[in-house]
Amino acid sequence: MEKWRLTYRLLKHSSNFDRRLTSGHRYLFGRTFIPFKENFRTLECPSRSYVNGASVSFARVNGNSYAVQHRYLASVASTTQRNPDFSKITSDDISYFKKILGERGVVQDEEKLADANTDWMRKHKGSSKLMLQPRITEEVSQILKYCNSRCLAVVPQGGNTGLVGGSVPVFDEVIINVGSMNNILSFDKVSGILVCEAGCILENLISFLDNQGFIMPLDLGAKGSCQIGGNVSTNAGGLRLIRYGSLHGSVLGLEAVLANGTVLDMLGTLRKDNTGYDLKHLFIGSEGSLGIVTKVSILTPPMLSSVNLAFLACEDYASCQKLLLEAKRKLGEILSAFEFLDVNALNVVLKHLDGLRDPLPSSVHNFYVLIETTGSMESHDKEKLEAFLLQSMNSGIITDGVLAQDINQTSSFWRIREGIPEALMKAGAVYKYDLSVPPEKMYELVEEMRARLGSAANVVAYGHLGDGNLHLNISAPQYTDGLLSKIEPFVYEWTSKHRGSISAEHGLGLMKADKIHYSKSPETVLLMAAIKKLLDPNRILNPYKVLPPSILSQS
Ligand code: FAD
Ligand code: MLT
Ligand code: ZN
């Protein structure tokens, strides 16, 4: 109890605590606003050299040079054949697209295409020669109708922040980016229902709602670049799912365009509508394989005035679980985030991201947990949280902790958690796994993985513990087939054995299309293939992704 109080007091009076961390960041409703595009750009590479399908490039960030590892599709491409049924783009096709979109909407510029062909992880690189940028639904419809008739394969792309290679072409597919469809169409202050186009960037929606006194029901580290259409298509989870649930609950309606150009108007704004099958759910999480999402209607919660954030230390994983249970019981309705990271994750962030400091520097801890509360009465919420923290300290569940005292501290705590993916990219090669695992088993996998890999790699764990979602990341100096063979299929077999999911929130994309059977029964996969065939008989939409191509060619 004394220790908790000490830390609390210490920070309360520490005027210099990380002041410089937040320059350039904007605090909004308890979250860090990172100009994500800028971070994204710093990961780009001016020059590349290729060695056995991998390339290494060097980029300069804030005066420090670091190496960025790249591994392109050497292994996947060698096992994935370009579907010979697909046509190749001709000059007639280009003329047609220019006729409907104008010069501006038809991108052939090599530099822009290089970005659009490469994913955020720098692991997947396609060779598309064409990106189309429609501005209205009718244009999307005309594009798809034409591509379907010509059997031209397409990749729907949003902010290109996906982590499973779903947003970039595998071969020469046409990229369709709806980023120019970025209008907010309506907002109802009484119901909190927002209707917008699919290309709206998540951060812009958050800012818009902030002015209206509302928030988005989802928040994630990629908010500065990802689009709501991409979020819906991946059924993104993020940091608020524990409080506001998944997009299957908050998305009320959608407009989507099918492969043959048919526009499906499912853009309802009703909380309740039981008239037959709720088809919008097919498009939530289907990763662009069934249609292009063009509009979204989403239920947004009102902004509440009292937000608190604690950064806590636990000595073992069992304590993290106990803390979760207690937080649910004692904080109840005000709990709005419960995130965890292990000491390896914290160290990667502190080493690779500028201007961050350990919030609990007096000793090294094995686990860290961020707990956020959001409520409507400051005094009540603070009292509840402080009582909970003191109890947790007294019972030994937490061994140290700080409660953010101002916007700067709040921002820096969130920056530590949200910055982990970026820090890992800077650290070298990353093997990234996104698993749903029963929380009590979650860390066993991490420990087993460490035992398997020994000193060959740094096994880093973090994630949305409150949702049973582990982000298992294996960081190594470079990608090697030897290391990969020690990780896979072990990681998938282990997850399957414990009835987990091999994709909690990132999707299957290209990376895990042929791994779906670890989480879904053969009958379920066959039904999915039949639905795909019904909606996209020529399989032009995001080919080679989500479902194993072999199953699609059979069905
Ligand atoms: P893209 O990456 O462009 O596309 C993703 C998939 O959706 C692709 O298959 C693409 O074909 C399809 N798609 C995109 N737009 C459309 C559309 N309009 N219609 C049909 N299909 C479309 N994910 C989480 O769930 N939780 C997190 O906390 C989280 N944090 C992240 C943090 C970082 C730093 C990064 C880089 C990524 C993170 N992600 C997270 C992963 C990612 O899924 C999300 O960033 C986001 O939902 C992807 O949106 P996007 O617009 O970038 O889509
Ligand atoms: C996160 O929670 O930080 C994201 O899902 C990204 C990641 O897993 O690296
Ligand atoms: Zn996540």
From TrEMBL:
What are the protein's UniProt keywords? Answer: FAD, Flavoprotein, Oxidoreductase
FAD-binding PCMH-type domain residues are: 124-303
- The protein's enzyme class: oxidoreductase
Please tell me whether the keyword Cytoplasm is annotated for this protein: no
> Which Gene3D superfamilies does the UniProt entry name for this protein?
3.30.465.10, 3.30.70.2190, 3.30.70.2740, Uridine Diphospho-n-acetylenolpyruvylglucosamine Reductase, domain 2, Vanillyl-alcohol Oxidase, Chain A, domain 4
Q: Name one GO molecular function term.
A: (R)-2-hydroxyglutarate dehydrogenase activity
Reactions performed catalytically: (R)-2-hydroxyglutarate + A = 2-oxoglutarate + AH2
Q: Which Enzyme Commission number(s) are on file for it? A: 1.1.99.39
Taxonomic superkingdom: Eukaryota
Q: Tell me the cofactors it needs.
A: FAD
Q: Which InterPro entries match?
A: FAD-bd_oxidored_4_C, FAD-bd_PCMH, FAD-bd_PCMH-like_sf, FAD-bd_PCMH_sub1, FAD-bd_PCMH_sub2, FAD-linked_Oxase-like_C, FAD-oxidored/transferase_4, Oxid_FAD_bind_N
Similarity comment: family membership: Belongs to the FAD-binding oxidoreductase/transferase type 4 family.
Q: Known PANTHER family for this protein? A: D-2-HYDROXYGLUTARATE DEHYDROGENASE, MITOCHONDRIAL
Name-wise, this protein is D-2-hydroxyglutarate dehydrogenase
- Give the classification, highest ranks: Eukaryota, Viridiplantae, Streptophyta, Embryophyta, Tracheophyta
